[in-house]
Amino acid sequence: MDKEKRNLIIAVSLVIIVFGGFYYAYLPEKCGDYECFRQNMIECSPAEYVNEESEASWGYEIMGEKIDKCEIEVTLLLAKEGELSLQEFEGSSMNCYYPLGTAAFPDEDLSVCEGKLKENLQTRLIEKLYEYILNNLGEIRGELGV
User: Fold this and answer.
1) At 15, is the secondary structure helix, strand, or coil?
2) Residue 10 to residues 18, 23, 109, 119: CA-CA distances in angstroms?
3) What is the mean pLDDT of each run of 10 residues along the chain (146 residues)?
Protein backbone atom coordinates (compact mmCIF):
# COMPACT_ATOMS: atom_id res chain seq x y z
CA MET A 1 0.00 0.00 0.00
CA ASP A 2 1.42 3.37 -0.94
CA LYS A 3 1.98 6.19 1.51
CA GLU A 4 -0.95 8.37 0.30
CA LYS A 5 -3.53 5.61 0.82
CA ARG A 6 -2.13 4.81 4.25
CA ASN A 7 -2.28 8.50 5.28
CA LEU A 8 -5.85 8.76 3.97
CA ILE A 9 -6.90 5.69 5.97
CA ILE A 10 -5.26 7.09 9.10
CA ALA A 11 -6.94 10.49 8.60
CA VAL A 12 -10.38 8.93 8.05
CA SER A 13 -9.91 6.70 11.10
CA LEU A 14 -8.99 9.69 13.27
CA VAL A 15 -12.04 11.64 12.07
CA ILE A 16 -14.30 8.68 12.89
CA ILE A 17 -12.75 8.31 16.34
CA VAL A 18 -13.07 12.03 17.10
CA PHE A 19 -16.70 12.24 15.94
CA GLY A 20 -17.53 9.01 17.75
CA GLY A 21 -16.02 10.41 20.95
CA PHE A 22 -18.04 13.63 20.65
CA TYR A 23 -21.20 11.63 19.92
CA TYR A 24 -20.84 9.45 23.00
CA ALA A 25 -19.69 12.33 25.21
CA TYR A 26 -22.84 14.33 24.44
CA LEU A 27 -25.28 11.43 24.25
CA PRO A 28 -27.82 11.87 27.06
CA GLU A 29 -27.60 9.38 29.91
CA LYS A 30 -30.73 7.21 30.16
CA CYS A 31 -31.85 7.45 33.79
CA GLY A 32 -33.93 4.64 35.25
CA ASP A 33 -34.81 6.48 38.45
CA TYR A 34 -35.36 10.00 39.74
CA GLU A 35 -32.10 10.05 41.72
CA CYS A 36 -30.06 9.63 38.52
CA PHE A 37 -32.08 12.39 36.83
CA ARG A 38 -31.81 14.65 39.92
CA GLN A 39 -28.02 14.35 39.97
CA ASN A 40 -27.78 15.14 36.25
CA MET A 41 -30.12 18.11 36.69
CA ILE A 42 -27.97 19.51 39.49
CA GLU A 43 -24.92 19.19 37.21
CA CYS A 44 -26.96 20.17 34.12
CA SER A 45 -25.58 17.13 32.29
CA PRO A 46 -27.49 15.66 29.32
CA ALA A 47 -29.88 12.97 30.56
CA GLU A 48 -33.30 11.50 29.83
CA TYR A 49 -35.87 10.24 32.32
CA VAL A 50 -39.49 9.10 32.13
CA ASN A 51 -41.55 10.06 35.18
CA GLU A 52 -44.47 7.64 35.54
CA GLU A 53 -47.32 9.18 37.50
CA SER A 54 -50.89 7.98 37.93
CA GLU A 55 -52.22 10.82 35.73
CA ALA A 56 -49.54 10.87 33.03
CA SER A 57 -46.11 9.79 31.83
CA TRP A 58 -43.74 12.72 31.44
CA GLY A 59 -40.51 12.62 29.45
CA TYR A 60 -37.69 14.85 30.68
CA GLU A 61 -34.55 15.59 28.69
CA ILE A 62 -31.81 17.80 30.08
CA MET A 63 -30.57 19.77 27.10
CA GLY A 64 -27.71 21.53 28.87
CA GLU A 65 -26.77 25.00 30.04
CA LYS A 66 -28.33 28.00 28.32
CA ILE A 67 -27.69 31.55 29.54
CA ASP A 68 -26.86 30.54 33.14
CA LYS A 69 -29.88 28.23 33.36
CA CYS A 70 -30.35 24.50 32.91
CA GLU A 71 -32.69 23.81 30.00
CA ILE A 72 -35.00 20.81 30.29
CA GLU A 73 -37.45 19.71 27.63
CA VAL A 74 -40.66 18.25 29.08
CA THR A 75 -42.91 16.12 26.89
CA LEU A 76 -46.29 14.67 27.78
CA LEU A 77 -45.76 11.09 26.64
CA LEU A 78 -49.02 9.51 27.77
CA ALA A 79 -52.10 10.92 29.49
CA LYS A 80 -53.58 8.21 31.71
CA GLU A 81 -56.38 9.50 33.91
CA GLY A 82 -57.30 12.52 35.93
CA GLU A 83 -59.61 15.50 35.93
CA LEU A 84 -57.72 17.49 33.32
CA SER A 85 -58.21 15.04 30.38
CA LEU A 86 -54.83 15.66 28.77
CA GLN A 87 -54.99 13.05 25.97
CA GLU A 88 -55.15 15.67 23.22
CA PHE A 89 -51.84 17.14 24.41
CA GLU A 90 -49.85 13.89 24.17
CA GLY A 91 -46.59 14.41 22.32
CA SER A 92 -46.49 18.17 22.92
CA SER A 93 -43.53 19.72 24.73
CA MET A 94 -42.31 22.73 26.64
CA ASN A 95 -38.87 23.91 27.66
CA CYS A 96 -38.18 24.76 31.30
CA TYR A 97 -35.23 26.80 32.58
CA TYR A 98 -34.01 26.21 36.13
CA PRO A 99 -31.17 27.93 37.99
CA LEU A 100 -27.98 25.88 37.85
CA GLY A 101 -27.67 23.49 40.77
CA THR A 102 -31.44 23.02 41.12
CA ALA A 103 -33.23 19.68 41.20
CA ALA A 104 -37.00 19.42 40.74
CA PHE A 105 -39.71 17.77 38.69
CA PRO A 106 -39.72 20.16 35.72
CA ASP A 107 -43.47 19.91 35.00
CA GLU A 108 -44.43 21.11 38.49
CA ASP A 109 -43.48 24.80 38.09
CA LEU A 110 -44.93 26.21 34.88
CA SER A 111 -43.61 29.70 35.69
CA VAL A 112 -40.12 28.67 34.49
CA CYS A 113 -41.40 27.02 31.30
CA GLU A 114 -42.39 28.11 27.80
CA GLY A 115 -43.91 26.35 24.84
CA LYS A 116 -47.06 24.75 23.47
CA LEU A 117 -47.50 22.26 26.31
CA LYS A 118 -47.40 25.06 28.91
CA GLU A 119 -50.00 27.06 26.99
CA ASN A 120 -52.24 24.00 26.69
CA LEU A 121 -51.93 23.11 30.39
CA GLN A 122 -52.70 26.67 31.49
CA THR A 123 -55.72 26.85 29.17
CA ARG A 124 -57.04 23.53 30.50
CA LEU A 125 -56.58 24.66 34.13
CA ILE A 126 -58.47 27.91 33.44
CA GLU A 127 -61.29 25.96 31.75
CA LYS A 128 -61.55 23.60 34.73
CA LEU A 129 -61.53 26.51 37.20
CA TYR A 130 -64.26 28.29 35.22
CA GLU A 131 -66.33 25.09 35.15
CA TYR A 132 -65.88 24.65 38.90
CA ILE A 133 -67.00 28.21 39.60
CA LEU A 134 -70.09 27.82 37.41
CA ASN A 135 -71.03 24.50 39.03
CA ASN A 136 -70.57 25.88 42.55
CA LEU A 137 -71.78 29.46 42.14
CA GLY A 138 -74.56 29.13 44.74
CA GLU A 139 -72.24 27.67 47.34
CA ILE A 140 -69.57 30.32 46.62
CA ARG A 141 -72.17 33.11 46.98
CA GLY A 142 -73.24 31.68 50.32
CA GLU A 143 -69.67 31.58 51.59
CA LEU A 144 -69.12 35.17 50.49
CA GLY A 145 -72.39 36.30 52.11
CA VAL A 146 -73.74 37.71 48.84
Assistant:
1) helix
2) 12, 20, 51, 52
3) 70 63 65 94 95 90 93 93 78 95 87 93 87 77 66
